[in-house]
Amino acid sequence: MRKKLLSALCLFLVVSALSGMCAFASPYSVSPWETGNSDSLLYIKKPASLSATTSESTYTVSASGRPGAEVTVYRRSIYDGEFYRVFQGGYMLEGTIGSSGVYVVSIELVEGGNKMLIRAQNDWEVQLIKIDITRLSQSQLERLNGLSVGDLFNAY
Amino acid sequence: MRKERIKSLVLVALILSSLLLTGQIWFNEKLWPDGYNFFVSMRMFAFGQQDNNSNAAELAPKSVMQTLTQPRHLVAYFGNNGFILTAQSERYADVYNYVAETLKTIFPKGIKSPLRVTEAEWQKALSTGGLYIDYGFACKSAAFAAFLGVSDAAPSDTVGTMRRFIITSADAPAGDAYVYLRDEGSGNFYRISVGSAKEALDSALAGLSGYATPKNRFSFFLGTDTPSLNLGAAVFSSYLILSEEGQFLPTVKSDSPTVRDGAVRTSAQGLNRLLRTFDMNPNTVQKYTDANENIVFVTNNATLEISPNGTVDYRAVSSKGLRLSEAAALAGAYHGLIPALGLAEKTVYLFANREDTGLCVSGLAENGNTLSISLDYKCLGTPVIFTGAFAGRHAVSLEVEDGYLRSYTQIIRTYTQQEQQSWVLSTYKAADTLFDRLTEDQRRNAIEDMVVAYDDDGSNAEKSAAWFIKLAGESVFMR
Question: Looking at this predicted complex, what is its ipTM?
C-alpha cells in the first residue's frame, strides 16, 4: 500500500512538472490566424518594415524585447500554411531575451519567399510578429542589376 | 743582514698584495661601490657618449611599429559577412602590413585632399567589401601619422582627430582603392583616394572570405545602434562589430617578476639592465630604500623608483630627462614617439617573454610639445585589462617633451600561456551578463566599445579571457 502511494506521488510530481513546462514552452506549430495577446514584448529592428529582399543565404533579424521573454522562430509551410518551429544546424531557433534586452538571430533562407513568424512569450503574454524575407536567386539579381530606368519605362 | 733581507721580502710582498687588491677594486666590477667611483666616472667620460648613441639606436627597432601599433578591431568584410581578425589569425601580419602601408600613403604632407562624404556613403562602404580598422583611441592627424612612422606630416586643417578607417575598392575607379576616415571630433566622414591599391587590397583579402560569417555584423546594420521604444534595450555604438558566436581562448598565468613576498626582489643583472635602459649607470647611481620599501635610484637628471607593488617609476628632475634621440630633441614632440615606444618595448622585454607577452598603444595625446602615451599589455594577441589594485591604469604611461623622456611608469607584469582553455561568450550573451551588473543610470548609456581581454587583478593566479565594456562618456573598460 505504501509502495503504491509513493509511486502515485512520484507520478503526480512528474506530470505536474511536465505540464508546467509544457504550459510555457513554445508550441510546435502556430496557426496563421493566431494573433497573440500582447504587443509590448518584442520590437523588431531589422527588418524595420517587417519585410526585406536579399541575395544572401542568411538573414539576421534583430529585435529588442522585454528581458525574460522566450523567443521562437517559425517558418510557414508551403504545404498547409501553418508556421512550424525552425531547426537549424541541429538546434531549434529559440532563446530567452537577456538583461540587455537585445535579441539577434540568423535565419538560413530558401530561395524565393520566406514567411517567418517570431513568437515571444512572457508568462501568459504572447506576441506574434510575421516577417517576409525574399531571397533572390543569382539570375534574378543579375537581371535586376542590369535593369535601367529606361527598361522600366519601356516595359509599359 | 739576513734579518734585513726578510724585512725587504715582506715589504715587497705587502706592496704586491696591495697593488693586487687595489687592482681588484678598480677592475673587478662586483667590488665597485654603489656610490661615486673615480674610475667608473673616467670610463663614462671616455666611453659614455658612445654608449648613449648605441642606446638611442636600439630605442627605435624596426619591429616597434608592427607590434605596438596594431588596431583594437580589424575586420575583413565581404558584403554583410564579417571576419574578425585577431593577432592569432593566420594572415593577420600580412593584412596589417597592408593596412599600415596604405594608411601611411594618406599623409604625404598633411593629409591628401580628403573629400567630405555622408555617413550613408561611409555605411555603404562598410556593406560592400574591404577592411575596417579601429585603433581604439582617437588622436590628432599629425600624431597619428607619427604613430604610423611618417615623420614629416604637417597637421591637417581638415581632419582633426582620427581613430577609425575603411579601406575598400568599392565605387573607386578601376584598379584604385579608397580610404574612408572619420573625424572623431566633428563626426564628419571623409574619403581619400590612395591610387592603384586595389590589387594589393585583393591580395590582402584573399582567402579571408571563407572565414567571414553573417554572424559577425556591424551594429548599424542590425539597427542595434538606436534606442527602442520603451523597452530600454542596450544600444551599441554604430560601428561596433557584434558576434553571435563565442570562442575558446587559452588561460594565462601572470606574475610580478620584481616582487617576492611583498618586497622588491630583482637580480643584480636585471637591475643593471633596467638602470642602463634609462641611461643610469649602476655603478655611479645613488641608491636608497625609502620608508615605503621603495628602492630609489638617483642621478643628477632623474630618479627611478622600484616599488614593492610591482611598478617602476622614472621621473626627470632636471629640465631635460632621458634624451630619446638626437632628431627627436631637435624636431619636437612627434619625433620622440617612435623612440619612446622603443623604450617601452625594451623595458617590458627586460622581464617578459616575447612569445606570450605583448604591448600595444592604447592612448596618444599631445599638449603643446608634450606627448602623453599609454600602452597596454597583450597576451597571445588578446589585450590585458587591469582590475583590482591597478584598475583603470595602463601597463605603461609615459610623457615625452621635445624628444626627452619626462616620466615613465610601468606596472611590471609577465604572462605565460597555460594549457587550459576557457569559453568566451558571444557579444550578445556578454552584454546580457554585463547589463546585470550595471545600475539603471549606467544602462541608459550606449555601449561605446566591447573587447575580449584577460582580466588581471594583480594576483599571480591563472587568468581567463572575459568581455569588458566601455560605456559612452566613460574612460575605462569595466567587466
Answer: 0.77
